[in-house]
Design goal:
Elements: E1 23-25, E2 28-33, E3 39-41, H1 42-55, E4 59-62, E5 68-73, H2 78-87, E6 103-104, H3 120-132, E7 145-148, E8 160-166, E9 174-181, E10 194-197, H4 201-215, H5 223-227, H6 232-242, E11 265-267, E12 271-274, E13 280-282, H7 283-296, E14 300-303, E15 309-311, H8 317-326, E16 340-342, H9 356-364, E17 373-376, E18 390-396, E19 399-404, E20 412-419, H10 420-428
Parallel strand pairs: 6-7, 7-8, 16-17, 17-18
Antiparallel strand pairs: 1-2, 2-5, 3-14, 4-5, 4-13, 8-9, 9-10, 11-12, 12-15, 14-15, 18-19, 19-20
Helix pairs in contact: 1-2, 1-7, 3-4, 4-6
The protein binds iron/sulfur cluster.
Iron/sulfur cluster is lined by residues 343-345, 349, 351-352, 376-378, 380-382.
Length: 438
C-alpha cells in the first residue's frame, strides 16, 4: 500500500554551511560544496581553486563526508563566490536541494571489480529522489545516507541515519538496511533490520524518508531522535505497509571488512589516493591535482571520507603517486600525518580551546608508527564522525585530555590536561603500561 507524499514538511533550520549559505567563522565565511558521490571533474576543481583564491583565503578543506569547503570567504565576495561555483555546475538541481545531497558511497563505486554490486545507477536514482521530491528538502543538512556496494575501499564507521548495503551479487542481490548506525561487521554489532531486493532500494529509501518526515517533530532532526520515541519494530511495521514487497530476513549477515588505508597509494594498479595534511588543501594544490587528472588520469577526481583525494584510472600510477607526494599529499599509510585528524581549532573556530591544526603538525613528529589520533578543539568532534582509536580533547592552548576508544563518548580517559609533549610520550609507549586516571 502506498501512502500520499507529505505536503507540509517542517522546516529544520541549520547553522551548517552550504553552497548558498555561507556561515561565518573566526577566519571568515565557510562555503561547503556538496559533491555528488564525492565526484568532480578537473574543470570544477579548477573553478573551486580559482574561486577560493579570488573570493576567499585560498584554503580548501576536504571534509569527512567527501565534500569540499572553502574557508575565509570575504564578506563582500559571498555572492561572487556562489555565482562562480554555480557556473561550474557545482550547485544542486534546485536551491532547496543543496543541503540534502548527503549520500555517501565508496570512492571506488563503479570501479572496484571486487565489489558485490556497482551501485552507481542506484546512487544516481537516490540522489535524484533527494533533489526532485521537494518535501525531502526539509531534511536536516546533517541527515545522511550510506549506499554500500561491498567495495574494498569503504568507510563503514560513520553512523548514518539510513544505511543500505549489498549482501550478494547480480541483479537479484538483496540489500540489507539499518537505521541510525553502521552495517554490522562483527558479532556484537547492531544487526541489520531487514533486506529488500536490489530493484526495491529506491522505494525503500523513499518510504523511510517519508516515514521519518511524517513522524519526526522539527526538533527530531536525526533518525536516532525518532528511534528514541518510536521502537524499530513499530517503524518496520509502518514501513512494510508502504512497500509492495515483503521485507526479507537477514539472518546473521555481516559486512566483510574493507581494506584498511586503501584510500592511500595505488589501488588495483590504476587508482591513486593521497591525503592532504590534516584535510587541508590550498588552491595551488587543487589546481595541480586537476591538471594531473587531465594529463595522467581520466579528467576526474573523487573525494573520500578520509579527507583525501582519489585520482581514478591513472595511466601511469607511479608517476601520479610521485606527483601527489611532491604536492605534499600523504600516499602511504605509514606517514604520521596520514593517521592524524584535527578540526579547525582555535585558529578558525570560536569554540576551539586549542590550535588543533598546528598542534597536530607538532605532534606528528612525536608519534610512533601506527598511532591513529584525533585532535578536537571541543567536544563537538567536527573532524571525525566516528570515535578514533585515540582522541586528544582540548582543555586549553596546547593542553589536552587523552582518551582511548571504548565505551561511551570518546572512550576511556587515560590522562587529564596534558601537554603535547606528554601526549606524544604517552602515545609512544605501549597503552598497557599506561595508568588510567579513572
Ligand atoms: S570540534 Fe569544536 S573547536 Fe573544532 S571545529 Fe568543531 S566546533 Fe570548532
Amino acid at each position: 500500500m502506498k501512502h500520499a507524499q507529505p505536503t507540509a514538511p517542517s522546516v529544520r533550520p541549520s547553522a551548517c554551511p552550504g553552497l548558498l549559505r555561507i556561515v561565518q567563522a573566526k577566519d571568515g565565511g565557510i562555503c561547503r560544496i556538496k559533491l555528488p558521490c564525492g565526484r568532480l571533474d578537473s574543470h570544477q576543481a579548477r573553478a573551486i581553486a580559482a574561486a577560493a583564491t579570488q573570493h576567499a583565503s585560498g584554503v580548501i578543506e576536504a571534509t569527512n563526508r567527501s565534500n569540499l569547503q572553502i574557508r575565509g570567504v570575504k564578506a563582500d565576495a559571498e555572492q561572487a563566490l556562489i555565482d562562480a561555483l554555480l557556473a561550474a555546475r557545482l550547485g544542486a538541481d534546485s536551491p532547496g536541494a543543496d543541503d540534502v545531497r548527503n549520500l555517501m558511497v565508496s570512492p571506488l563505486a563503479g570501479l572496484d571489480p571486487s565489489a558485490l554490486v556497482d551501485i552507481s545507477p542506484l546512487a544516481a536514482r537516490i540522489l535524484a529522489l533527494l533533489q526532485d521530491k521537494a518535501h525531502f528538502h526539509a531534511l536536516s543538512p546533517k541527515f545522511a545516507l550510506l549506499l554500500d556496494g561491498g567495495e574494498s575501499m569503504a568507510m563503514l564507521e560513520h553512523p548514518h541515519d539510513l544505511w543500505v548495503s549489498a549482501m550478494g551479487t547480480g541483479d537479484h542481490a538483496q540489500f540489507a538496511f539499518g537505521l541510525a548506525g553502521c552495517p554490522p561487521q562483527s558479532t556484537g554489532d547492531v544487526p541489520a533490520l531487514a533486506a529488500v531486493p536490489r530493484a526495491q532500494v529506491p522505494a525503500l529509501v523513499e518510504a523511510l524518508l517519508d516515514l521519518f518526515l511524517e513522524l519526526a517533530t522539527p526538533e527530531q532532526t536525526r533518525m536516532r531522535h525518532l528511534l528514541a520515541e518510536h521502537p524499530e519494530g513499530d517503524l518496520l511495521l509502518r514501513l512494510q505497509q508502504r512497500l509492495d514487497v515483503p521485507l526479507l530476513p537477514v539472518g546473521d549477515w555481516h559486512r566483510p571488512a574493507p581494506q584498511p588505508f586503501a584510500h592511500l597509494g595505488i589501488h588495483d594498479g590504476r587508482h591513486v589516493g593521497g591525503a592532504p595534511a590534516l584535510g587541508r588543501l590550498d588552491a595551488t594544490q587543487l589546481k595541480a591535482l586537476a591538471d594531473l587528472a587531465d594529463s595522467l588520469g581520466d579528467g576526474n577526481l573523487r573525494l573520500t571520507p578520509w579527507q583525501s583525494v582519489l585520482l581514478p584510472n591513472a595511466r601511469d600510477p607511479e608517476a601520479v603517486q610521485q606527483a601527489m607526494h611532491d604536492l605534499g599529499l600523504a600516499t602511504n599509510a605509514n606517514a604520521p600525518l596520514a593517521r592524524l585528524v584535527a578540526c579547525t581549532g582555535s585558529a578558525g573556530c570560536a569554540r576551539g580551546l586549542a590550535d588543533t591544526k598546528s598542534d597536530a603538525l607538532a605532534l606528528a613528529a612525536l608519534l610512533p608508527p601506527g598511532a591513529v589520533v584525533h585532535l578536537s578543539g571541543c567536544p563537538r568532534s567536527c573532524a571525525s564522525a566516528h570515535v578514533a582509536p585515540f582522541t586528544l580533547l582540548a582543555t586549553g592552548p596546547g593542553q589536552y585530555d587523552l582518551y582511548q576508544r571504548g565505551g561511551v563518548g570518546f572512550g576511556r580517559l587515560l590522562a587529564r590536561d596534558i601537554s603535547l609533549k606528554e601526549a606524544g610520550e604517552r602515545l609512544a609507549s605501549p597503552p598497557d603500561t599506561w595508568s588510567s586516571t579513572q
